[in-house]
Amino acid sequence: MALPLALALTGCGNVIAGAPSQAELEERAHYAQISLDHVYVTEIEGFTLAHQSVGGLGDDGFQAAYVAQDGTRVTLGADRGTFTDQDCAASPKSAPCTPEKPGWYRTSDGQHTYIRVEDGVRITLDAPLTVGKDRLRAAAERAHRADARELDDVLPEKPAGGGAPVQRGDLPAEGDGAPDNSVGVGG
């Protein structure tokens, strides 16, 4: 996604002219149950951010999709975590993984992923193999923590009148985190 000039020119210092206050950004992130430290953005030639795709990942991570005109999707995720050469080596044969700049590269079932770790945040970019490896690598290298203007662009707006934070589903407190979709007696 090509950033408008206003996003590219962020100026010096911590305050960016025209951006919402830090408190407002924190309130919007809290409402969406996303940590500001986990909001990452990138640029991918020929792809634009699908704002409706922005949401939480894990406990307080961030996920968003970038979409091409033909519907091809690249998913960016950022969440607490690590990934090491040992994790890469332990990948199953069906999902081979190799250390490769900017971190690790893995393929599986027509998809490929770049994984990198920065300051305790695991950043992943996933795409179909039709998105060339060089294009995906470039997007992984460009992925960065969002500045105030980028946060304003990607964070969901808090509805007028406030209200409780969005509910992120019926995730159980234990197990693999899969939702409980049982319907009970009588279905």
Strands, helices and their partners?
Elements: H1 5-8, H2 22-31, E1 40-41, E2 47-57, E3 61-68, E4 73-80, H3 85-89, E5 97-100, E6 103-108, E7 111-118, E8 121-128, H4 133-142, E9 144-145, H5 148-154
Antiparallel strand pairs: 1-9, 2-3, 3-4, 4-8, 5-6, 6-7, 7-8
Question: Can you describe this structure?
Answer:
The chain has 187 residues and is an alpha+beta fold. Helices cover 19% and strands 30% of the residues. It has 5 helices and 9 strands, in the order H-H-E-E-E-E-H-E-E-E-E-H-E-H. It has helices spanning 5-8, 22-31, 85-89, 133-142, 148-154; strands spanning 40-41, 47-57, 61-68, 73-80, 97-100, 103-108, 111-118, 121-128, 144-145. The chain has a 7-stranded antiparallel beta sheet. A two-stranded antiparallel ribbon has the order 1-9. A hairpin with a 2-residue loop joins strand 5 (97-100) and strand 6 (103-108). It starts with a helix and ends in a 33-residue tail after the last helix. Residues 1-14 have low confidence and may be disordered.
Strand element count: 9
Helix content: 10-25%
Provide the low-confidence segments as ranges.
1-14
What is the residue-mean pLDDT, rounded to a whole number? Answer: 83
User: Main sheet?
Assistant: 7 strands, antiparallel
Query: Rg, please?
Result: 18 Å
The backbone outline, from C-alpha atoms, is: globular
The largest sheet has its strands arranged as: 2-3-4-8-7-6-5
